[in-house]
């Protein structure tokens, strides 16, 4: 029988080498057959990433000297053990027995005594060590120093709430396919199945489940009545103000949640572009389940090779970003992202925005969105763009959600029970 703690430690090790959880966790899950064990493995991996900066500090406090580079999998195993002791309801004896046994599974029997000593050391000094973790912002909020400083600088009043929200478990939000069923009717259907849910009032089609469930267990999923999508992500499509017959471009479209939402909202001609063929296939699969269709093109959205002479009435640019607004869903971002990434991403966002603008009809609308909370990727990009494009006119987003910015609106993580997203809407003037 495979040791789940060993698998978790191996997965965390890969994250520390630069791979995302989305990339490496599925490989580990394929080696586990019981659904309960898969859930436990996933909880370990996400939990260690979520609290990594605290757990790593605890480990270093308990180790007499750092482990060698070739033994970093054992360091990750210690993090897995500490996470179980600090955050999970696993009996302490089971934590020690199984985590120590995992050292043997790594074929490093010498490490069994070390892992045992570190975990027992934590048990003996837990109160003192936990108190120590509260005295420094990095360990208190379990974020890297650069993110803490960036959020403090950008959001002086909200920074603590943002960092706290990043460590919360996100709710399961759904989007109702209103071509098939109304939100009110679907809520009634859930109630009949004794599933507690409520609408997301800031959205036209969103609901939140009181308790997360496997989507396959939800009524109507297989026939396309619902999709999983955070409430904030749903707002992007609503801002486009789509009308039947319009020609619409979804740049950076994969994995396709917003593309599907557009097709559910209006009978449009949709062209979806993404440069990642694997993610584009996910988009095609999503559309197939929902019985929707679009022209899907695998290409760099800034390249002129794929685009036709015909311009677009509406463009959605969901720009690649730091994903700093969705850390609660992807806690490995705290490990993988670097401060130097932000300027590079801002350059790429500007490049995409310029390309999108060239494809927009005069009188057309463009919605720019990111799942970032950093102004360098949001208002900064839009302000610089508008200074160099006299035909760009901000269409104010007059809504009661989020926070008004110099341009556009920002939703913070946890606000309205949503992920952190930024939105701006521009219309193109007639020359």
Give the domain tally.
Answer: 3
Distance between the termini: 70 Å
Helix/strand structural class: alpha/beta
Please give the share of residues in helix: 40-55%
Give the uncertain stretches in residue-range form: none
**Percentage of β-strand residues:** 5-15%
Alpha carbon gyration radius:
23 Å
**Mind describing the biggest β-sheet?**
9 strands, mixed
Structure write-up:
Helices cover 46% and strands 15% of the residues. The protein has 431 residues and is of the alpha/beta class. The chain is globular and about 75 Å long. Strand 11 and strand 12 form a beta hairpin.
Keywords:
431 residues, alpha/beta, N-utilizing Substance Protein B Homolog, Chain A, Alpha-Beta Plaits, Rossmann fold, 3 domains, 9-stranded mixed β-sheet, 4-stranded antiparallel β-sheet
Describe the secondary structure blueprint for this structure.
Blueprint: H1 4-16, H2 21-29, H3 35-50, H4 52-62, H5 72-87, H6 92-105, H7 111-124, H8 126-133, H9 137-141, H10 145-154, H11 159-166, E1 173-176, H12 183-192, E2 197-199, E3 206-209, E4 226-228, H13 231-239, E5 247-251, H14 257-265, E6 269-274, H15 277-290, E7 295-298, E8 312-318, H16 333-336, H17 341-358, E9 360-370, H18 379-387, E10 392-394, E11 403-404, E12 409-411, E13 421-428
Parallel strand pairs: 5-6, 5-8, 6-7, 8-9
Antiparallel strand pairs: 1-3, 1-4, 2-3, 9-13, 10-13, 11-12, 12-13
Summed up:
The chain has helices at 4-16, 21-29, 35-50, 52-62, 72-87, 92-105, 111-124, 126-133, 137-141, 145-154, 159-166, 183-192, 231-239, 257-265, 277-290, 333-336, 341-358, 379-387, and strands at residues 173-176, 197-199, 206-209, 226-228, 247-251, 269-274, 295-298, 312-318, 360-370, 392-394, 403-404, 409-411, 421-428. The protein has 431 residues and is of the alpha/beta class.
């Amino acid at each position: 029988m495979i040791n789940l703690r060993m698998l978790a430690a191996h997965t965390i090790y890969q994250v520390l080498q630069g791979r995302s959880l989305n990339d490496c966790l599925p490989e580990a899950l394929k080696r586990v057959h019981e659904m309960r064990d898969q859930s436990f493995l996933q909880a370990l991996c996400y939990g260690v990433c979520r609290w990594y900066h605290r757990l790593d500090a605890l480990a270093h406090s308990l180790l007499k000297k750092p482990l060698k580079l070739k033994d970093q999998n054992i360091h990750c195993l210690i993090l897995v053990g500490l996470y179980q002791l600090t955050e999970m309801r696993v009996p302490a004896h089971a934590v020690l027995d199984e985590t120590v046994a995992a050292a043997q599974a790594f074929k490093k029997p010498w490490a069994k005594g070390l892992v045992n000593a570190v975990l027992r050391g934590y048990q003996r000094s837990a109160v003192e060590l936990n108190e120590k973790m509260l005295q420094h912002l990095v360990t208190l909020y379990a974020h890297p120093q650069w993110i803490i400083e960036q959020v403090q600088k950008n959001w002086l009043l909200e920074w603590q709430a943002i960092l706290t929200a990043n460590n919360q478990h996100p709710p399961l939000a759904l989007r109702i396919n209103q071509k098939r069923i109304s939100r009110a009717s679907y809520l009634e259907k859930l109630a009949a199945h004794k599933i507690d849910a409520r609408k997301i009032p800031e959205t036209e089609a969103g609901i939140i489940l009181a308790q997360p469930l496997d989507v396959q267990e939800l009524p109507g999923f297989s026939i396309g009545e619902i999709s999983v999508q955070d409430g904030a992500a749903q707002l992007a499509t609503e801002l486009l103000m789509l009308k039947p017959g319009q020609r619409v471009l979804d740049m950076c479209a994969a994995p396709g949640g917003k593309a599907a939402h557009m097709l559910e909202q209006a009978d449009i001609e949709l062209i979806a572009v993404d440069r990642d063929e694997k993610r584009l296939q996910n988009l095609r699969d999503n559309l197939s389940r929902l019985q929707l269709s679009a022209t899907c093109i695998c290409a760099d959205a800034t390249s002129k090779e794929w685009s036709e002479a015909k311009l677009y009435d509406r463009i959605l640019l969901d720009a690649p970003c730091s994903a700093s607004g969705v850390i609660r869903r992807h806690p490995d971002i705290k490990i993988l992202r670097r401060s130097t990434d932000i300027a590079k991403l801002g350059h790429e966002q500007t490049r995409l925005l310029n390309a999108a603008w060239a494809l927009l009809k005069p009188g057309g609308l463009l919605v720019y969105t990111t799942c970032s909370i950093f102004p360098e990727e949001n208002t900064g990009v839009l302000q610089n763009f508008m200074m160099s494009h006299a035909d760009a006119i901000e269409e104010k987003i007059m809504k009661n959600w989020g926070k008004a910015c110099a341009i556009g609106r920002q939703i913070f993580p946890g606000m309205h029970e949503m992920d952190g997203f930024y939105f701006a809407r521009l219309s193109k003037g007639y020359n």
